[in-house]
Design a protein that fits this description.
InterPro entries: ACT-like_dom_sf, ACT_dom. The chain is of the alpha+beta class. About 30% of the residues lie in helices and about 30% in strands. The chain has five helices and nine strands; from the N terminus they run E-H-E-E-H-E-H-H-E-E-E-E-E-H.
């Protein structure tokens, strides 16, 4: 499974042309997600999750996309998070079905929702900051968690020069308090876009609201 992040012309037919090009190299498209519209220059940023049959080189995906006029590949990597088009809605459905666990559910679902590798809930409401919950593949933070709190609003974070984090891109959002924060990380990129920060902020606020009804 591979994740392609593309800049494409924001006009009818562009996405279909890309899908046709990928089909010509035997790529099986699992999900397409419009990440951001850039109306100032008439382009859009799309994430496409694809699978390749045995024997087909991954480089052919990039070549196929680059062969489409106006399309630029800005990120390409193996993808193991298992996300898809409807992950936001699935996360909301799970939270509403179990309000008392809404925040824990968001932490667990955040990597799939944002096409990321890991997520962790940092809790400093009792004074000392601790990792209250984490998904698999979350790196060791050590004392680094202190520098991320308090956090007033959802934002990207600068990755510290620390083993396991130095090549990561990070985004975070407060939950219930500026000292209770969800941090989500991607190893190596791509950078989190403003639209993704906004999505995380929305889901974080929704999780807190749902949790309050429990």
């Amino acid at each position: 499974m591979f994740l392609l992040r593309l800049i494409i012309p924001d006009r009818p037919g562009s996405l279909g042309t890309v899908a046709t090009a990928l089909g010509e190299v035997d790529a099986d498209i699992h999900a397409i997600e419009i990440v951001e519209h850039r109306r100032e220059n008439g382009t859009a940023v799309d994430d496409i999750v694809v699978d390749l049959p045995p024997g087909v080189l991954p480089d052919r995906l990039v070549s196929a996309c680059n062969g489409v006029e106006g399309v630029e590949v800005i990120w390409f990597s193996r993808y193991g998070a298992g996300g898809g088009l409807h992950m936001d809605l699935e996360a909301v459905e799970q939270m509403t079905s179990a309000p008392a666990e809404a925040i824990d559910i968001l932490v667990e679902q955040a990597p799939s929702v944002l096409h990321a590798d890991w997520a962790a809930l940092l809790d400093g409401t009792g004074g000392e900051v601790k990792v209250a919950l984490e998904t698999s593949a979350t790196p060791e933070f050590g004392g680094l968690v202190e520098q991320w709190l308090p956090l007033e609003k959802a934002t990207t974070l600068a990755a510290p020069d620390h083993k396991g984090l130095v090549e990561s891109v990070l985004v975070a959002a407060p939950l219930e308090s500026d000292r209770r924060v969800l941090v989500v990380g991607r190893r190596g990129g791509p950078e989190f876009l403003g639209s993704e920060v906004a999505r995380l902020s929305y889901l974080a606020n929704l999780a807190v609201t749902i949790h309050a009804t429990a």
